[in-house]
């Protein structure tokens, strides 16, 4: 034996940016050219940039003042960042160091690196270094390849954007420059449908009245076009070249994130030293990465590169770690502890001497295969495969997996928090009702409205007649909005910030008052008779989520009447309009019908009142600090004593198959909560019509609370009820959370369904965090379609965005993007199930693969007097987990325990997944026992059946080990796939070739003998047949639920 032991023991780089002068330009620019440099020079500059990035202080942001044609006054170009897009994580010199640093931050990878490094120390070396460096190198190579291709793709995208050509206005005319050469103060021409390369103050446009539209879907996710206005002074110049000859200064505030605000001034000093100045706001600015949708424009660049609004709002979301990953990590820690304990036991059994620590390290090295180094890579590759499968599913078209690291989370969702508008409903508005206080008109009586309006416009009725009142209501609705008609190819479409506004304008067109034209300063209405009426737009106050209303001051060019029109939510408008006794009641009635309500009001202004307002408003607009607050305060003075004109109701239809989907989710044990900013009555109506509240549910409306005592009483009232559907407002929730956070979580989670109305975006995220805090480790998913849902989506364990009418902001911020709510069922019940079950099987099998070979090693060492000698040498150890078993084990990612149709037909099966029984301490212990049994059978069988040569032990035990692994994969599979057959056949073929031609490890004559085949087959049968019979008995007498369904 000693002779045998003795025999074993002897056995992206961005360095191309260079300064270069242009012969066609009077100034210096930075041109991206590639020149030959010495390697030392390139290495030195790259390292210098890296050091600057590491040690530099955070760049301070400054306001700037620019002079047209001369650039910045407040500093040179070097004070501002270059207009370079750079999304790369690495360059040529930092790629390998940074990737390795990211990998070795993880304890297990660092552990394996240290184990591999010990092989350079002769005293503790175990076999060939390739045994330890091979698996580690394989894992790191896969990671390096993946990171390289990801970063190279980013480099190509950056190069494309930086190389886009734009026209710059100089004193000699226009010259062509690249996007990355644009500097603060440059005058840039932008053509229709082109990306805007930097933040630009709009000076001139080819569109009438100096207005143009931009598309902002890549900035804020909203699909509607935004109106932008050129500076009036420069718009009125006769040619573009005159911009170079005026004495003009443009002031811009310091860079900030808010894309809805901008403070600046435009000041021109004329030849007679008179000064013309005007304020600049967000309507005068074109943000970078938006697209010019109409005409051509010229603007002056005020922010570039990292100081643009687009880049400043680009933040890396917090990395989400799946529950499965955390469970696997915990099991890996147990395995590490097991390695240390087993190594210590082996040293104690061997006996302590002066070299005990060397033997301890050697045993740690021998048993290091218990911790599967390939597990992380296998799971990462599996997650990428899952994302590919989901994206190719024809039953959920256009689904995108943006975060492949948490696909298994979809199989364990306990709570689904959903937005209402655009998620459960279509966000396609239809005008359904108008109420004037005494009379209401709905869809079936709109023809009567048309008749009343036609008779009123004939001018034969008194001003107090009902027809005139109805005409006033229709005309006010047709004027009080921010809608613009767009004519293309003979057809008209409406661009607006909200589908509600489009629905209102489309309704007035049906009635006979059509919005024919609109520009910056006027609006034209066309009546059914063909007559047109033009109104001058004096001031426009757009809708904001804070104000919840919008207003406009118009002047009738026929009568010179000046009017302030306003519409908004009933909660704010009820405090603005004159006293009435019907608004609150009718708002509630419409809400119970599931309609979205808007209150429309009007106020006539005298020329004196308008002049006073204009003076105060202009003064507020010119202020450089708190400009928006000052302007809002001036407008607020107008918002008093408005005449209530009418109340409108718009219907938002339910999404397709919402009722069936919610029923399916309920049967799957997933609690669905609806979080909406809408009114309480509307929310209840939608909850009932969608099926969120079933007919048998007892609906409990949580009372309005403002104090701790009221919150205490309401919570006690809720506690006395059971199996209720809860409805509460965001304001009441805030009060309750302030004093009774834990009690709220307990009681609310006990309800069968929950609706939270009047809920702000921050409150939506707060509710997600509440569940994460008190219901851990249960998984929370959130689904929405609008920008107000982003915070909720990002806070959830799994965020789902709907790519719909309201925009792409939620879709882009989400982990998963779908196009309709009904697809969430297949995403959770089918793909969530498959991903979770497959990853569980893959994880445990990879652990089993390491445990079984380590069990054999432990027995081998014990038999040979606790010798710290490796059983399998060199290539065999490396090939065991790569060449021979990797493909069959990885083929588990295409396994499925039941069909997709059955997963949807029996949603109750989903409940079992949340219990985590597919990967638990119980299943882990079962696999440990299996590994110990099989490892013992194989090792003792080989020792008992071998004749005299040690190489026969290796041949028999390793062959039995490989075939045991392949058979175990087959026993684990539920549904065979052609890829599984290929993987098994290829692995068997490769191993047979190894037996025949790898003479260093196998005796060719022996492995071709009947004795070898018989002994290997017997050992393999003894290790696998008992497990097969146990599995057969279990499926016969106590089958799992999915087996019963199949």
UniProtKB/TrEMBL annotation:
Q: Which reaction does it catalyse?
A: ATP + H2O + phospholipidSide 1 = ADP + phosphate + phospholipidSide 2
- For this protein, the Enzyme Commission number is 7.6.2.1
Q: Where do transmembrane segments lie in this chain?
A: 130-149, 334-353, 359-379, 846-866, 872-894, 924-944, 950-971, 978-998, 1010-1030
Instruction: Give the way it sits in the membrane.
Output: Multi-pass membrane protein
Where would you find this protein in the cell?
Endomembrane system; Membrane
Alphabetized UniProt keyword annotations: ATP-binding, Lipid transport, Magnesium, Membrane, Metal-binding, Nucleotide-binding, Translocase, Transmembrane, Transmembrane helix, Transport
The residues annotated as the active site are: 419 (4-aspartylphosphate intermediate)
GO MF, one annotated term: ATP hydrolysis activity
What the record says about family reads: Belongs to the cation transport ATPase (P-type) (TC 3.A.3) family. Type IV subfamily.
Write the protein's name.
Phospholipid-transporting ATPase
Report the source organism: Parastrongyloides trichosuri
